[in-house]
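Why should sequence recovery work at all? Because a backbone constrains its sequence more than one might expect. Tight turns favour small or flexible residues, buried strands favour hydrophobic ones, and helices have their own preferences. The token representation captures these environments compactly. In the example below, the structure is given first.
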């Protein structure tokens, strides 16, 4: 049985989301205040958290581009001490369902093997490379899944 639950996040989760982002991403990849608030409040976005007790241990964000029939996974993170329990996989499955579009895409640092392994396991394939996309000059890989 799962020891965590998946819940819809909202603006009250801002403080916990900030802590989670800091635990998951290097300083140069942290989102500014308005991006985090936007993810937690804007309409037509998916925001799901994995919760143990009252603690947010994982988060995923998704954005719809209805015109193109594409959903984008915008962020995904799981606290280090809760990794390798399938939490990211579960968040990703729920996010894909909630985006409910035929194509799901995301971008990831080319060196981020754990995330790329996760996405490939979930059926994503590399469709593009954005050169020097990230702060520091690292390329992004763009991955896609057709549902
Ligand atoms: C990437 C990340 C979200 C994975 O979270 P997680 O909850 O540990 O992932 P899961 O337990 O659901 O892993 C599912 C599968 O993904 C793959 N995977 C996950 N982490 C991996 C790792 N470190 N190395 C290799 N494969 C990995 C495995 O196939 C794993 O299945 P297994 O545990 O049965 O081998 C987490 O490591 C993280 O938060 N990293 C920092 C933030 C980040 O890079 N986010 C992605 C940005 S695009």
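From this structural description, the recovered sequence reads:
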């Amino acid at each position: 049985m799962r020891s965590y639950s998946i819940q819809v996040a909202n603006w009250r989760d801002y403080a916990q989301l900030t802590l989670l982002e800091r635990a998951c991403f290097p300083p140069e990849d942290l989102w500014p205040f308005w991006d985090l608030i936007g993810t937690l409040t804007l309409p037509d976005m998916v925001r799901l958290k994995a919760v143990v007790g009252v603690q947010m241990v994982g988060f995923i964000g998704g954005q719809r581009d209805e015109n193109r029939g594409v959903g984008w996974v915008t962020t995904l993170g799981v606290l280090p001490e809760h990794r390798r329990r399938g939490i990211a996989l579960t968040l990703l499955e729920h996010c894909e369902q909630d985006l409910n579009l035929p194509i799901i895409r995301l971008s990831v640092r080319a060196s981020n093997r754990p995330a790329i392994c996760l996405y490939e396991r979930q059926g994503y394939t590399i469709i593009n490379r954005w050169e020097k996309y990230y702060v520091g000059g690292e390329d992004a890989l763009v991955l896609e899944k057709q549902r």
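A few observations help interpret the result. Residues 110 and 140 are 5 Å apart (CA to CA).
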